[in-house]
Design a protein that fits this description.
Helix content of chain B: 55-70%
Low-confidence stretches of chain A: none
Order of helices and strands of chain A: EHHEEHHEE
Oligomer: heterodimer
Shape of chain B: rod-shaped
Structural class of chain A: alpha+beta
Largest sheet of chain A: 5 strands, antiparallel
Number of strands of chain A: 5
Shape of chain A: globular
Radius of gyration of chain B: 32 Å
Strand content of chain A: 25-35%
Strand content of chain B: 5-15%
Mean pLDDT of chain A: 88
CATH class of the largest domain in chain B: Mainly Alpha
Strand order of the largest sheet of chain A: 1-2-3-5-4
Number of domains of chain B: 2
Chain lengths: 137, 275
């Protein structure tokens, strides 16, 4: 059972919103005593997903939560956009595939950086990505 | 005349000025002589405008007052007044004017219409002072952004033929553009054959930052120079590996010192300790 203790919601509409978001996520990691390595992984994952949110979803909102599961503590970040959605999830999750001109590592790379990764998408109805990074994960 | 009441305020200009400055002194948003000059000019122009605009709340005469007001509010901003105080400045004028109106006119319905018009005009102006204050602030911010992006990408000539570029902060698309331009220009200007990009100050390297770095390296190579990326921290190295970014074609070093050492090796230079 994963329970959330503190929660925060941020609106992301432009590239300038990325840095404050990253700092907030970092603060959540520091608060539960996450190691520098895991912090960096979490921040990088956040950075990847928020760029996707801006580039493909046309902006949206991000929810940062402190979560715990028994004795394990972690940070959960949820990215919600109302963009066009993803046509083929399995293709999007493949290394090196990109509909834009990027490296195509955003989604698969992020999945490797975090402990839990969930993606829900519907064509025309936006995409929601949820990641959890455990303190000792 | 549709409304001679507001126009008649002009006859009571001196009295209005006195009442106004008393009110300003009472709420403490005044700073003496400069303000008195400004207030006098403003009141004269506004009363003239009220006189000629004939109850119209959107006339050309009022436009002139707006221009003056923007000047006044920015000068007050420079003198350290807050936007709240600027709005109070106008609200005090409204108060003084309506006081005088009630002295010269006793018919409540006429008084009401005049006060309503006065409110519309002055409230508009109060909003205007806020807007011009905000605009002033935004100008300052955008100037600072330009300044920061300029000073945050210095290209340092560390040795004959070697330039270094320490990157501090997030590397986004616009920043990469500046970095790349500066670096390539410096390579030409100094005739350098080796460029060192130090990313010690970059908080996180995601795939976009990596892509920007790869592009910068490729562009440097096209210019015939070699590019070394230094300042890769242990946690960054692990993150890059997990993300699956391929940096194998690029010379990367943990510190600027080892990057410089590599550069010396490439230039066939040796650093020897004096006996």
């Amino acid at each position: 059972m994963t329970t959330a203790t503190s929660k925060e919601e941020l609106l992301i509409v432009k590239e300038q919103d990325v840095v404050p978001l990253r700092n907030r996520v970092k603060e959540y990691g520091v608060k539960i005593g996450m190691s520098i390595l895991n912090q960096t992984k979490l921040i990088t994952a956040t950075s990847e997903l928020v760029r996707n949110l801006l580039k493909y979803g046309g902006g949206g909102k991000v929810i940062i939560e402190s979560v715990s599961n028994g004795r394990d503590q972690g940070v959960r970040v949820t990215f919600i956009d109302n963009g066009p959605g993803i046509k083929d999830i399995s293709l999007a999750m493949k290394d090196g595939y990109s509909t834009g001109k990027s490296l195509g590592l955003g989604l698969p790379g992020t999945k490797r950086l975090v402990n839990e990764f969930d993606i829900q998408t519907e064509l025309g109805n936006g995409t929601t990505v949820t990641i959890i990074k455990w303190k000792n994960g | 005349m549709q409304n001679n009441l507001l126009a008649s305020l002009k006859e009571h200009q001196n009295k209005l000025l006195t009442t106004w400055s008393q009110l300003l002194q009472a709420n403490g948003s005044t700073d003496g002589a400069t303000e008195e000059e400004e207030s006098k000019e403003f009141a004269a122009l506004l009363l003239d405008a009220l006189h000629y605009s004939n109850g119209n709340t959107d006339s050309d005469e009022l436009e002139k007052v707006h221009d003056l007001l923007i000047g006044i509010s920015s000068s007050r901003g420079r003198r350290g007044f807050s936007p709240r105080e600027n709005a109070q400045y106008l609200i005090a004028f409204k108060e003084a004017a309506s006081k005088i109106l009630s002295e010269v006119e006793s018919d409540p319905s006429k008084l009401y219409t005049a006060n309503l018009q006065l409110s519309t005009i002055l409230d508009n102006m109060a909003i205007l002072t806020f807007e011009s204050y905000m605009k002033g602030r935004e100008d300052v911010i955008s100037r600072q952004i330009d300044e920061i992006s300029e000073i945050s990408t210095p290209v340092i000539r560390v040795w004959d033929g070697v330039v270094a570029l320490p990157i501090i902060g997030t590397l986004d698309s616009s920043r990469t553009q500046v970095v790349m331009e500066n670096l390539l220009q410096q390579i030409v200007d100094t005739g350098s054959s080796i460029a060192i990009l130090d990313i010690s100050g970059v908080p996180a390297v995601d795939s976009l930052v990596a892509q920007h770095l790869i592009k910068t390296v490729s562009a440097t190579r096209l210019m015939g120079a070699e590019c070394i990326i230094s300042g890769i921290r242990p946690e960054i190295a692990q993150t890059v590996v997990h993300l699956g970014i391929d940096l194998t074609g690029i010379i990367t070093k943990a510190s600027l010192a080892s990057a410089l050492q590599t550069a010396f090796d490439m230039l066939q230079l040796t650093v020897v300790k004096r006996k």
